[in-house]
Amino acid sequence: MHTTRIRQLLGAAAAAALTVGGVLAAAPAANAAGVGGASFWVDGTQYRTVGTPTDFSGTGAPAGSFQPIYAFPEGTQTNVATAAPGDPGYRGGRWVVTEVLLPNGYPAALASGDLDGDGVLDSDEELWAAADAGDLAVGGVLRYFECPVIPLPRSGG
Question: Greater confidence, 79 or 4?
Answer without folding.
Answer: 79
